[in-house]
Amino acid sequence: MAEGSTATRVRRTKAEQRAESLEQILDAAEYLFSVNGLHGVTLRDVAKRVGVHTTLLHYYFQDKKSLFEAVFARRASVTSNRRIEALDRYIAETAGKPTLKGALTVFLDTDLDLYIERGEPWRNYAAFCARVSNTPEGAELMDVHFDPVVLKLIAILKEARPDIPEEDIFWGYHFVTGALMNTLARTGRIDRLSGGLCRSDDFPAVKKRLAKFMAAGFEALKD
Amino acid sequence: MAEGSTATRVRRTKAEQRAESLEQILDAAEYLFSVNGLHGVTLRDVAKRVGVHTTLLHYYFQDKKSLFEAVFARRASVTSNRRIEALDRYIAETAGKPTLKGALTVFLDTDLDLYIERGEPWRNYAAFCARVSNTPEGAELMDVHFDPVVLKLIAILKEARPDIPEEDIFWGYHFVTGALMNTLARTGRIDRLSGGLCRSDDFPAVKKRLAKFMAAGFEALKD
DNA sequence: ATTATCTATAGATCTATAGATAATGC
DNA sequence: ATTATCTATAGATCTATAGATAATGC
Questions:
Q1: Hey, what domains does chain B have and what are their CATH numbers?
Q2: Strand D near-CB residues (< 7 Å), B 148-207
């Protein structure tokens, strides 16, 4: 046992310690909530996964619901802003001539890239959002955090195709988000159905197909 | 108070009483599970909604998980068989010349019609399936109850378009089921996003668009 | 005589708080 | 002196079982 191995904890400032503890707690909660939902996870489960006492969670968060909301909020602005900026660039580039497929590609691929590039914690967040998007607690947070980026996408879709009735545009988005959420959830169902031909964690395979598929769907609505 | 109002309980046979109690319990559980999921509902919640004692649920069901599975199973074979029969009729009618749009219309509209025609209990079941489809408990049941009808649909899609790679067919189905589940969940999100222009309980509006949208999406995958 | 329903309760959680201890910060 | 973490514990559930009572069935 060298001296380094006994002093397992490197000296940290309190700010660092706080930040690290918070991150560990949020990561653990994010993963567990993504699998079992708000009510399927106890504070003890989270504490156990982090390796701290349950009461520490109460030191950092008022209650379980606050922890849940913090998990949602932590990464929401990152993905929302990334997509808003990408859509703004797309508007500038196409100078008043956007297309359905172009706008959908920016919206969907910018999101999928985040999960492809940034590894497991982000993919857990994606699964977390998908898992809770159809719950009373989650739906509220979806509205708060993602309405701006979604409404921006919809405005561009309308501009791209003023001939498609607004109602159809909204229903089309409804289908898009269903397909996206089903992807982010990574349930493994498509793996089992296809006998392993498709894997639900193969986001690049989805990226290759999703925007193309959905753009064609929108086009068909005017028939 | 006439004599009819005091004798609120009409005399029933035990078999009738049993059937009625079971149905009330399953209806209540179905609704509550559809809103809050397996872990968000207690047996007390269910008992309270029915107006009986918690222990009665244990008389009819071994435990909470069994009740949950019974809710899933009760209507699963009805919707599964209905669609299997409709697809079989479609195969016979088209005599080896099925189309993507035709098969998807049969699969999706046959399901949606069930919820449109049979009222709230069935719509609660639809929401229940959607709510739990991306949970560990629900995914397992989806496999058990719905694999046959889904694989039959996929076989027809392959026959309709042997030129589309099998992998693309499966991914297309993955998008279809995401859109369908998002519809069945009736979260109210599309209502709020569209400022009331679309309503998430407007299944006829979805029926008018979903198969058409998805068929065009499949077509686009070969480009 | 059997089945449906209720009463009483054990045992196991779970959330949340109060207050103690250990570590950093000035 | 302040912040991070732990110990101890109250109070409120929740699931599940044992056994009693009320209603149907032969």
A1: 2-221 (1.10.357.10)
A2: none
